[in-house]
Amino acid sequence: MNPIIQSGVVCYNINNVTNQAMYGNCRYIASNSSLTTFTLPSAILAGQCIEVIGYNSAGWTISLGAGKSINWIDSTGTISLSSGKHDSYSYVKLICVVPNTVWNIIGSEGSLLLK
Questions:
Q1: Cβ atoms of 67 and 101 closer than 8 Å
Q2: Distance from the Cα of residue 85 to its chain's centroid
Q3: Which of 8, 88, 103, 112 is close enough to 94 for a disulfide, judged by CB 3.0 to 4.6 Å?
Q4: Which domains does the chain show, CATH number per domain?
């Protein structure tokens, strides 16, 4: 089981596995030595946020799942969002804008790839 440290309504998950289901209002630190794949929650309310902080050499990716999308500037992705190939310390903050399906990127650092 991954350690989760509760602080108010935000949880911090120091992730050391290759696959991780995500929950609303949580921050995830991708510290596994292999590529870490996060999966967006299937049920989430509009206004809830998720953050991923990269801290490994292999990077991370967020799998969207069927019927989900992420909007960023003037692009929309429906498959995945990931840290750049050589930017494993990338950061992203997402907010759900349509319950269960649509996310907007409201903060980021580093290189991100939206597919």
A1: yes
A2: 16
A3: 103
A4: 4-114 (2.60.120)
